[in-house]
Amino acid sequence: xxxxxxxxxxxxxxxxxxxxxxxxxxxxxxxxxxxxxxxxxxxxxxxxxxxxxxxxxxxxxxxxxxxxxxxxxxxxxxxxxxxxxxxxxxxxxxxxxxxxxxxxxxxxxxxxxxxxxxxxxxxxxxxxxxxxxxxxxxxxxxxxxxxxxxxxxxxxxxxxxxxxxxxxxxxxxxxxxxxxxxxxxxxxxxxxxxxxxxxxxxxxxxxxxxxxxxxxxxxxxxxxxxxxxxxxxxxxxxxxxxxxxxxxxxxxxxxxxxxxxxxxxxxxxxxxxxxxxxxxxxxxxxxxxxxxxxxxxxxxxxxxxxxxxxxxxxxxxxxxxxxxxxxxxxxxxxxxxxxxxxxxxxxxxxxxxxxxxxxxxxxxxxxxxxxxxxxxxxxxxxxxxxxxxxxxxxxxxxxxxxxxxxx
Length: 407
What we know:
Layout: H1 10-41, H2 44-70, H3 74-97, H4 103-126, H5 128-131, H6 138-166, H7 169-178, H8 180-189, H9 204-217, H10 219-234, H11 242-249, H12 254-277, H13 284-304, H14 308-336, H15 342-355, H16 357-370, H17 373-406
Helix pairs in contact: 1-2, 1-6, 1-7, 1-8, 2-4, 2-15, 2-16, 3-4, 3-7, 3-8, 4-15, 6-7, 6-12, 6-14, 10-14, 10-15, 10-16, 10-17, 11-12, 12-14, 13-14, 13-17, 14-15
């Protein structure tokens, strides 16, 4: 099948298998942390802090990490990050097993996970091209990677809901620790080309500036990254409020929360499946625009929803738009970036998609303390439409300028 062509490559198949299990454990843990922290504190602001410390390392470290990964043995970096992530999961499992509900320690361990992820995500994206035998299968590999992540987002919260209600929160964290065993095993089973060391520039700052100049000169990539950055700052952090939406807006419980998490995951999975079947890569720029509108519309729907059912479908739309947007930008970058600059440009993509989210989580958490949750969601939807409008106008001017230059 054309939509599974990347799985013909043994290395990608091993990567896909291991990561599928590991990401399932990650989402079980993420869901459990959000629910337990909100149950203990009852504060949207503390949820915002948890989101902030988990993702702020990506914002601060991504440009440096891109340069580091570009000159490092990606396979070794990937193995090391998985070992460190397993240790972090083990420590968190111990914390909850012994019922030590200390918010400061949870925040510290979340920060540790964020630092590890800053390296792991950049490395994983940069080595994707090395995992497929046929380079034409790269877009399919990126789309399957996205589908895998979002299937875990659907199944993980649902499993977390069962584990929380039947076995307790400690079992969720133990499950995540165990899930790292398959991914580490699969990494050791891979057979990758011999590593060729690359000379480092004497000044890392020069590499960072060179990467930024490249991104700025590629007008389409630059504009897409700006749009993605804004959505990551102001719209994507709506996921931080899911426990609040479930408990306060719709007077639900942990099952309502996991239902809403799964709704976002279903939308995300649908978008990822669509991307695996996408054959006309020239549509990517239009997909960025359309998916941004869908996400904004989804948040509008949730903000005015009178009941859980309509809110569920609004969250499905939000998840669909969120992942379609990010996957389209990611694929466009992978296909249109100079191979020598790929890791650095990917680091800017990760900084835009993941790195801006912690600031947004903190901002949205603060807004939810002073405004109603419905008002915050409504404002996010309005800002999304305004941002897309500016993006379309800018894109049209850029194309006109390019045509004028060619003439």
